[in-house]
Amino acid sequence: MENIIKVENLCFEYEPGLKTIHNISFQIKKGEYVAILGHNGSGKSTIAKLLIGLLEKKSGNIIIDHKELNLENLYKIREKIGIVFQNPDNQFIGATVRDDIAFGLENICIPREKMDELIERYAKRVRMDQFLDHEPTKLSGGQKQRVAIAGILAMSPSIIILDESTSMLDPRGRKEINELIRELKEDKEMTIISITHDIEEAKNADRILLLNKGEIVGDDQPETLLMNEKLLLDLHLDTPFALKVSRKLKAQGIQINETLNVEELEKQLCQLHAKI
Ligand SMILES: Nc1ncnc2c1ncn2[C@@H]1O[C@H](COP(=O)(O)OP(=O)(O)OP(=O)(O)O)[C@@H](O)[C@H]1O
After folding, report:
1. Are β-strands 215-220 and 207-212 bridged in parallel, bridged antiparallel, or unpaired?
2. ipTM value
3. What is the pTM of this model?
């Protein structure tokens, strides 16, 4: 599969001499689901802003879909990328869910009939079609984020960036959004970048880029990277819940395979229980 994002030796600083992003390079393939994982202040959101051209790099290259991100290509590249931010309340423009999903489509002058069709289709896609005439302010956090995602999907981007988009949600809202991301991943139509400090969210990705102090310190599959408890602890990150429990049980002499997956842990515990 070809690369849709290529970042080469990227450097950025907010203030002269205070390097926030240090010489990072990575590539993301079309249709891949990549988590950029790091603790607070590691530079995750800065990378998201650089990728959509909200911040200007100091040096290096960002190539999106074979085009270099520069002033000339900025608007063309932005059409390819949709971004969902952290705070669901800051993302609403419309008075109703329908108006809100319509906003981006109106900006690119989609005819009314086609627009209505797209709004219906993507509201359904995020299971919000029953709420089209509701006021966004009266929705739950998870529902608001689903509407924000519908607005982005309706614009048919090639890449969607979720910048800590579940961090302000309650467990139910978080579960809703994570399920939706998993479904989008199954479609394989879009490249998904999830920016997160949540290890449980990162473990669903195909690949994790681990960030610390503006540098990439790990680039691997979750099954490999998240098994390294010491590395995670050193970076002030938690260990996945299922791994923590399975390792503790193993240390107690219980025959169990280490796993990152809660469902897999449950399965093993049920099998053990059946043997007692
Ligand atoms: N506008 C700004 N001006 C100066 N420094 C900034 C600015 N925005 C962020 N920083 C600093 O840059 C570093 C990286 O910030 P960034 O927001 O990218 O990290 P993050 O990993 O996304 O953190 P969080 O999870 O807390 O959002 C931090 O040290 C932060 O204090």
Report:
1. antiparallel
2. 0.96
3. 0.90
